[in-house]
Amino acid sequence: MKAGNLQIRPDGRLRHFLSTEGLTRELLTEILDSAESFAGVTEQSVKKVPLLRGKTIVNLFFEASTRTRTTFELAAKRLSADVLNINVNASATTKGETLLDTLRNLQAMHIDMFVVRHADSGTAHFIARHVQPHVSVINAGDGRHAHPTQAMLDMFTIRREKGADFGRLTVAIVGDMAHSRVARSQIHALNLLNTGDVRIVAPRTLIPAHVESLGVRVFHDLREGLRDADVVIMLRLQRERMLGALLPSEHEYYRLYGLTEEKLSIAKPDVTVMHPGPINRGVEMDSQVADGPQSVILQQVTYGIAVRMAVMSMAMQQNTTQEANAQT
Ligand code: NCD
């Protein structure tokens, strides 16, 4: 599912944001730099800039979400766009036709951008292939495939905590890699940013085949995987995506892979702990760690707004420039 050509304009600018796979290091860095300036905006008492005034953005969510949907909504509002939230409960089998119909109807209302979340992998790409030329699509999570804005807010958090030189960093991603769109997007982004050592730590049943081809080192023992890590990213156990019994029990999972203060002490003393949320306390991690001094879990949420502002404004930039040129 290569998104590269679809999401990049002929002049190298962002058209859609569907996946971190196939992007360039320059584009990722541009997103992070632009988010840095928007982080300043969101910290002011007046949090709005007029960049997307007059634009209409639709949050098209076919799957439940709180954090991601609200931060996309806030990001759009802080860019002065008009936002519509549409939550659709659609079954996968009826997808094809209803999806195109929904799309056509919304486009008839002169929409400029779709932010899409769907339980099926590939939905955002499908929509991107069918929208009008001036419309941009942002993937807010598709099945177990990709969640690129989450990955970028994670990269932003790492850069803020550890500086821009990813080459000297060891990042351990711990947990349900098999079902995680977040992990996949993170790995592509970490590779593009030349991260020194990217590790996956999980039981054999929660690691997809051929994961090493993504350029990561695989560990089945949490203590080994945590050794000297600069950043630990915990993943949620994605029960809703597990078809069979892949785990003996949550208690057993916690015993082997749950992050406690004691296990965390194997990582570097200044280790940063991250989690995309929602956290299952007492399953992936202890509350002491989730709420502890190393945790930046709530900062991730805050940064998500600035990163989404960056991605939205970059994808719309070309349209805005074209219109401005047309008017002069
Ligand atoms: C993630 C998601 O929905 O993919 N959460 C999020 O976007 N904040 C991760 C998860 O659900 O575990």
Features:
Rossmann fold, four-stranded parallel sheet, 328 residues, binds N-carbamoyl-L-aspartate
Question: Short summary of the structure?
Answer:
The protein is of the alpha/beta class.
Description:
The longest helix has 31 residues, at 297-327. The protein has 328 residues and is an alpha/beta fold. β3, α5 (123-130) and β4 (136-142) form a beta-alpha-beta unit. The N and C termini lie far apart (40 Å). The mean pLDDT is 91. Helix content is 41%, strand content 14%. It folds into 2 domains: 3-146 and 302-319, 3-Layer(aba) Sandwich (Rossmann fold), CATH 3.40.50; 148-295, Aspartate/ornithine carbamoyltransferase (Rossmann fold). α2 crosses α6, α2 crosses α12 (297-327) and α3 packs parallel to α12 (297-327). It binds N-carbamoyl-L-aspartate (NCD). N-carbamoyl-L-aspartate (NCD) binds next to α3 and α7. N-carbamoyl-L-aspartate (NCD) binds at residues 67-68, 141, 147, 150, 181-182, 236, 238, 276-277.
Listed once per kind, the bound small molecules are: N-carbamoyl-L-aspartate
Instruction: Please tell me the total number of domains.
Output: 2
How much of the sequence lies in strands comes to 5-15%
Judging by the overall fold, what is the CATH architecture of the largest domain? 3-Layer(aba) Sandwich
Rg measurement, Å: 20 Å
Sheet with the most strands, sense and barrel status: 5 strands, parallel
CATH superfamily caption of the largest domain: Aspartate/ornithine carbamoyltransferase
Determine the N-to-C terminus distance: 40 Å
Approximate shape: globular
Average predicted confidence as pLDDT: 91
Give me the CATH fold name of the largest domain.
Rossmann fold
- Tally of helical segments: 12
Which parts are unreliable, with pLDDT below 50 for 5 consecutive residues or more? none
Task: Spell the H/E element sequence.
Answer: HHEHEHEHEHEHEEHEHHEHH
Helix content: 40-55%
- The count of DSSP E runs of length 2 or more, i.e. the number of strands, is 9
Assign the structural class, choosing from mainly alpha, mainly beta, alpha/beta, alpha+beta, or little secondary structure.
Answer: alpha/beta
